[in-house]
Design goal:
There is one protein chain. The protein has one helix and ten strands; from the N terminus they run αββββββββββ. The chain is mostly beta strands and 167 residues long. The protein has a single domain, classed as Sandwich (lipopolysaccharide transport protein A fold). The chain is globular and about 55 Å long. It starts with a helix and ends in a 6-residue tail after the last strand.
Length: 167
């Protein structure tokens, strides 16, 4: 199970990397996120107050002050739930909840929840989504990232603050 957890955490790191260009949102800042030179093969370090593995429902839950580090990426949340496929052979979904904060390079994102569906190759950040890139800020209720297409969509009262010049 330890190897499966490492694999799951690597996939969770993909949530944090969010290194997907968003050509459909090219007005203002792009939604490419973080340090694109970050090495996804770098070791993943996880700290949490507790880890519970449930063989019967195929989940592993990290809870309490969860901190995940990989290269230049840092993710914090109250809880991270890893769900395995029915045959327990692979990670199917990851769910980070409770004040999710992702920092990669100079960029930062936060939301109430982040879900990564490995089968659909999508990441959904839900609830009070805030993306900060330099002086620019984007907010919405929900952001969906299609990793296959390399696109992102923000829904639910989207607000963008673009700073031009030095002011």
């Amino acid at each position: 199970m330890a190897l499966d957890i490492r694999s799951a955490l690597r996939h969770l790191a993909l949530i944090a990397a969010l290194a997907v260009p968003a050509p459909g949102l090219a007005q203002g800042p792009s939604l490419a996120f973080g340090d694109n030179s970050a090495n996804s093969d770098a070791p993943v370090e996880v700290e949490a107050d507790s880890l519970a593995i449930n063989q019967s429902d195929g989940t592993a839950e990290f809870s309490g002050n969860v901190l995940i580090l990989q290269g230049t990426m840092k993710l914090t949340a109250t809880r991270v739930l890893v769900t395995y496929a029915e045959d327990q052979s692979r990670v199917q979904k990851l769910e980070a909840t409770g004040g999710v904060v992702v920092v990669s390079g100079a960029d930062a994102a936060e939301s109430d929840r982040a879900d990564y569906d490995l089968d659909q190759r999508s990441i959904v950040m839900i609830g009070n989504v805030v993306i900060v890139q330099g002086p620019n800020t984007l907010t919405s209720d929900r952001m969906t990232i299609d990793l296959e297409a390399g696109t992102a969509r923000m829904d639910g009262r989207v607000r963008t603050l673009l700073k031009t010049g030095d002011k």
